[in-house]
Design goal:
Number of helices: 6
Distance between the termini: 47 Å
Structural class: alpha/beta
Radius of gyration: 17 Å
Largest sheet: 7 strands, mixed
Shape: globular
Strand order of the largest sheet: 1-3-2-6-7-8-9
Length: 245
């Protein structure tokens, strides 16, 4: 297995300020991409003086031997309609997902070790990165304890066994305490709408109320990130990890 490239870190614009005001955003790339594909978002925000207290961490996935691309797990097909023979569907890569969860948890631990509390750390991602972010908030040691979760053009993996995974991990019933921002495009052909709907439904079943779930669908947007998505995400981030005077 090839070595993992280190994360790209973009320090907070006002990093010289006190640690009490510090916050961090771990932003996870999608399938076939890498950390450099998202890095410019941090620079755009800082150039506009948005969230100057926020440190950005862009982790890198490993090269996936099955997919021949960088991936957080081996992808399985996402169909617009339920399968008539679900027993024949490709299984989800649970092992790969859990290994990636463990790696992202190590990045969260590094942030807390240097003094940034969990309630000032946001985790988020695009596509597979969205899937990983939602999973981490539900089954990891930090489930329900982070400042928030951003999920763009993704879905909730392992939805049918989330309850079992939470039980195995000894997760307390706190997932309804974390604010979540979800976004998808109406023309996203890679992640069909039914997966977005199933994700929202499952989150509500797990106790995430309407007051903590901010979900957007963007007319005409495909599998990508547009200006309106980033503006809405920025406004949401300013609420969950505000600059402290």
């Amino acid at each position: 297995m090839s070595a993992r490239d280190p994360p790209i870190n973009v320090v907070a614009k006002d990093a010289a300020n006190s640690i009490e005001n510090a916050a961090a955003f771990i932003f996870i790339h999608g399938f076939g991409d890498d950390a450099s594909g998202l890095e410019n978002i941090a620079h755009q925000f800082q150039a506009a003086n948005k969230l100057p207290h926020l440190e950005w961490i862009f982790p890198n996935a490993l090269e996936n031997r099955d997919a021949m691309e960088k991936a957080w797990y081996t992808p399985s097909s996402l169909t617009p309609f339920p399968s008539s023979r679900p027993e024949l569907d490709d299984p989800e890569d649970e092992l790969g997902m859990l290994q990636s969860v463990k790696y992202i948890e190590s990045l969260i631990e590094k942030l807390t070790t240097k003094g940034i509390p969990l309630d000032r750390i946001v985790i988020g991602g695009f596509s597979q990165g969205c899937a990983m972010s939602l999973l981490i908030n539900l089954i990891s040691a930090n489930a329900g304890r982070l400042a928030g979760v951003v999920g763009i053009c993704g879905y909730l993996p392992l939805a049918e066994c989330i309850v079992e995974l939470r039980s195995d991990a000894g997760v307390q019933d706190t997932s309804g305490k974390t604010p979540i921002f979800l976004a998808r495009g109406t023309r996203d052909m890679l992640v069909p709408r039914r997966y977005y709907s199933m994700c929202v439904q499952k989150l509500k079943e797990l106790g995430v109320g309407d007051d903590l779930l901010e979900a957007h669908e963007y007319e005409g947007m495909g599998h990508g990130m547009t200006g309106p998505v980033l503006r809405d995400a920025c406004a949401w981030l300013e609420k969950v990890v505000p600059h402290r005077e």
